[in-house]
Amino acid sequence: MSVRKGLLAALALSLSLSAPASVPAAAAFQEGVAPDDAYTVWLCPMHRDHQAHGEGRCPLCGMALVRRTLVTRYVCLAQEDGLVEDEPGICPDTGDPLVPATREVIWFCPSDPDRVFVEPGMCEGDIPREMTTQVSAHGDHNPRHGGILFMAPDGVHHLEGALEDGAFRLYFYDSYTRPIEPDPFGARVVPADDRGAPLGDPVALATAPGALEMPAEAAAGERAAFTAFVQFPGRDREDRFDFIFLSDAEKTAFAAETAPAALPELRVPDTPQAILNAIRARDRRVQALIDQGRWADLFIPALEAKELALAYGESASDRPWVALKRIVRGAWLLDLYGDQGDRVRVGEAYEIFAEGMRGLPERARE
Length: 366
Ligand SMILES: [Zn+2]
Ligand SMILES: [Zn+2]
Hints:
alpha+beta, six-stranded antiparallel beta sheet, globular
């Protein structure tokens, strides 16, 4: 989904195609083609969070996007034992529930297992490549504690806010979504209202086993919002995260429309006017998601609006390039800051997007 600046070196180190030595490959090997539940995405090789609808270039680094096959599997929280299951279950080492994880499907030849392929094919001696899955950096943004997971602007860490046992807790993860101890991090947190206005002064979180926490009186099943200001090592200022926990009623109402792991296929309408209408529909959707505080779902209508804007530029005769460029830029900033959960930056990104929308004509010129 999204991408960030200034960390290309760190990302490049951790984003080689092979799994790092400390993350064993899946135990179960299969022959042949991809599993039934696999799906295809287009990603930047450097910034895996950035997805797209098809071929193109990464808005951050300009690299050509690559096609990858992903799948959801279930792993132990720390992923130490390399256990990868097709279904939910219990981690034998800890007795804790397995957690869902997005993994990349890869193929290899038994004679040279270090060399991995992104497609099935044949090995020497006419034997088919074997299939396995691996974890990739920034390939997995599933929360581990039923909370909300964001990507840190440092491009290296992830963090999850969760309401548990009368406390607001912050959990920290590395780029492979493996838990890390909270010691290197500091955080101040304040409950907020629906518009993100703080209800009081931020409180420094205390260290708890595996997390930072503070008592929180959020009523069960009710909507609750917390703003966190987190100090990451090496950052010169705190980063902001807006955690909005939906009420049970909202969760039920939105269940069918929560963002899938991959971008759904997009059908571009035939006429410029229909494309224009489709862009406006995405704008309304973006606004609704911002109103609801559903930052992580923003990338879908935003990136659809981006594709549709490009299609409008191709098909209409008026070609309002300045407006279309603003929509494209605003869309990928919405994607980026949506993943980071910073409502102030989401708002700024939407301003760019909205300015582009205002520059579109009322009626399309065929
Ligand atoms: Zn990139
Ligand atoms: Zn990430």
